[in-house]
Amino acid sequence: MDAETYDGWYETPRGRWIGRREAALLLDELEPRPGEAVLDVGCGTGYFTRLLASATEGPVSGVDVNSERLAYARRQAKANLSYELADARALPYGSASFDLVVSVAALCFVEDEGAAVRELVRVARRRVAIGLLNRRSLLWLRKGVRSGRGGYRGARWHTVGEAAGLFAGLPVRRVRTRTAIHLSGGGPLARIVEPLWPRWLPTGAFILVVADIV
Question: Which pLDDT band holds residue 78 (cuts at 50, 70, 90)?
């Protein structure tokens, strides 16, 4: 899928609902402060990078290994946004370079996700948030079985426990998880059910795991 088509999906009715729901969960857990520096790892076309820039009004950087998607992201960039070609497993930044570090649905496609998580923690000063795909969700049954279908082909799916375990042994505290997008169709029923779904039932297709830096 080319970059423009990928980014344009977020302007479809279903894509807009999913994107905004995931972004709301991300911002709620990150609690960004005005002017904070943010890094978006595996930023793709910059959809979440742009949202983060609007929320903080501070310097926001995005990195990705896909040069075509980065080129698209740069064309949409605002003054406080910058992008760089880089691998999540070897980020070109010093330790504690960013207040907040995020990665949304990107580490699912990184071969050594453990190395990537260590890098996210290394370059963060305050908080790290990682979005992953939930193996205990209806979306997994539709799109994830047998190596995945469409844009999910080759993706790694996690349980909530596995997601939290990615931070094991790292200098973090208060590791917590939440899920969203329980009915992924995005229709009227999905929109009604979503805010009513109990937090103790983590069956949303999107897992967000968050940790504070020690």
Answer: confident
CA 180, 186, 191 angle in degrees (round to 5)? Answer: 70
pTM for the model stands at 0.95
pLDDT at 77: 79
- Give me the pLDDT at residue 56, please: 86
Residue-level pLDDT at 151: 85
Query: Within a 10 A sphere around the Cβ of 119, how many other Cβ atoms?
Result: 20
Across the range 18-38, mean pLDDT stands at 95
Residues 179 and 133: their CA atoms lie apart, in Å, by: 9
Range of the domain at 142: 3-213
Mean pLDDT over 95-115 rounds to 97
154-170: burial string, b at 16+ Cβ within 10 Å, e else:
ebbbbbbeebbebbeeb
Handedness of CA 142, 145, 149, 155 (dihedral sign): positive
Give the domain CATH number at 173.
Answer: 3.40.50.150
Is 110 strand, coil or helix?
coil
Q: How far apart are CA 42 and CA 97, in angstroms?
A: 17
The domain total for the chain is 1
Residue 71 falls in which region: left (phi positive, over 0), alpha (psi -120 to 50) or beta: alpha
